[in-house]
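Forum: Protein Structure Q&A
Topic: Joint prediction for protein chains with partners

I've read a bunch of threads here and the consensus seems to be that you should model interacting components together rather than docking separate models afterwards. I'd like to see that in practice. Below is the full input, 705 residues plus whatever partners are listed. Could one of the regulars post the assembled result?
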Amino acid sequence: MSDTTDGQVLTTQDGKPLKAALAKALRREKLRALMLIAPLLIFVLITFVAPIADMLFRSVENGIVADTLPRTVIAIQEWDPNSGEVPNEEVFAALYGDMVVAVEEKTHTRLGSRLNYEQSGISSLFRKTGRRIKRMDEAGPFKEQFLDADRKWGDVSTWQVLKQFSPRYTGGYFLNSFDAHQTADGIEMKPADQRIYLFLFGRTLFLSIVITVSCLLLGYPIAFLLAALPLRTSNLLMILVLLPFWTSLLVRTSAWKVLLQQQGVINDFLVWTGVISDAGRLVMINNQTGTIIAMTHILLPFMILPLYSVMKTISPSYVRAAKSLGANDWIAFWRVYFPQSVPGIGAGAVLVFILSIGYYITPELVGGTSGIFISNRIAYHISSSLNWGLAASLGTLLLVAVLMLFVVYDKIVGIDNVKLG
Amino acid sequence: MSALPPYASPLQRAWFYSFRVICGLIFFFLIFPILVILPLSFNAQDFFTFTKEMLALSPEGYSFKHYNDFFTNPDWQQALKNSVLIAPIATVLATGFGTLAAIGLSQSHVPYKSAIMAVLISPMIVPLIISAAGMYFFYSRIGLQGTYWGVVLAHAALGTPFVIITVTATLVGFDRSLVRASASLGANPVTTFFKVQMPLIIPGVVSGALFAFITSFDEVVVVLFLGSAGQKTLPWQMFTGLREQISPTILAVASLMVAISIALLTVLELLRRRSERLRGLSPG
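Posted by a regular:
Agreed with the consensus. Here's the joint model:
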């Protein structure tokens, strides 16, 4: 490109207007940048973003009733759930037709276990009816035959659940995540003995706050010391922070399992020194104490590193100036040094908090039943109870919480300023 | 804080030393759990604590039997093999895609840069349990659940943010006039990339690759959900070992993994120094 002038309009050497040539060059540059980014973007969209979107979709998706019992779902539209009576013969006839197909395809048990999340007993109702369906008279009357197969078909509540979950999309899983459910009278909280998720969310938040505060209390002095020492010494001490950071999570969790056991190193040491008696060995594992200790240890480097990088930028001359103006050590620290380290506290605390509310492995291994988090419940619903919809809605709530925290983190640190090691 | 001035009062002196003691205790808290498993892994008994013989430093108290078990037990060997098969492939994928994207992102005119960055970094932000849940649901749909490639792709996705961050950080100090100089001397873009750009950003690429490798090598949540028995990796085997039949072999494996961490840490530190030297940020 040259800056030859030709009359009034600036042009390039081959006579094109300079403005257009520049715009073209810029476009080409943008295109080249996008071409470089595209492979990874597509890769991440397929392998990561699509799965997350799938999870969000599953938290409201409820096609199973409409897919398994298509005729019944249409027939039941006209039935009024508040009438206090079971639906008429027509609906039962539709149910018979659907059930014959469902039993042939063996999908009725799946539907049964799905609806069982909403009202217990429906799973066995579907299984029992499935076994009887072949012996039923094709000519009807169906209502009597169904009632004969299982009396629950005569309960209005069975039909209410069926009707309530017949739409393709449901907020039922989210209600469940908040310990609520939909009844004929609207949304209600579940009976107190069945409430579990609000409590678990609360505990996850509480334990994460405790862990974040412990990390801050332990991390602040270390970062302060590292920032104050000469570079050679602090680099050496930094190894003590980076080694745990780089050590496998499972290695550290197993170390704590070994240390905290009742027959473990710490208890043995305390008994040997006579602090506790052999009978009075402390229970430090499989409860909240275990989770807090192990997770504080695991997340401590994530607090120290951001704190350290902020503290290193605080010039020691400020504190010196404060002291020369008559401040004592404490005032100089609290009024001059500490306010400057607050961005580091914010970055470290938000980072540790984000990491800890989603933790799964450590609470699972050292948390017992009283030290587990909401993530352990999500894992349970995926692999044991197979209530994927509920797992997805709990996951969605957790994801929303983390993303909101991340916006805060982005404001404090900036997403491009994440540093490693 | 680095040194005590000669005029310090007794109170200042006391605080100076007690602060160091406090810091010493915290460092002890950080490092002790990792160090304690090293001697325990040589325990001749199947205990998780120091036996009398060990404390007396008598040779009978120590043995290699847990290491022996690790190297002969087919379960552990299969797990080691799976880890070695999965992590490098995931690393190569993550590093390749990640490096290209980082170069693209560091160009001066990138449309929607922050939105793209947010998407690319997201695997690092989203809690693992949620990634694992979503991948489990989605990969079951497309038939990748329980397959080798399912685990590899998932691990590669989890590793890419680290590559992007480290390579972008190296590129910040990259002098773009070097590219122009190379072009003006007649090199085509590919030659310029391999002869000029690559040697300068290689420390960032390698440390990103190490991060990606360790992410995959240590990863347990996703593989727990996505893998089937055929993809049982070392962390998975450790996880089941810790949860069910807790055996001291875990301590031997843990010690070996600490050794790997130390090796990685050393390589990273050397790379960091080299990178700083190349960019002229520090003398020597």
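Residues 128 and 242 of chain B are 20 Å apart (CA to CA).
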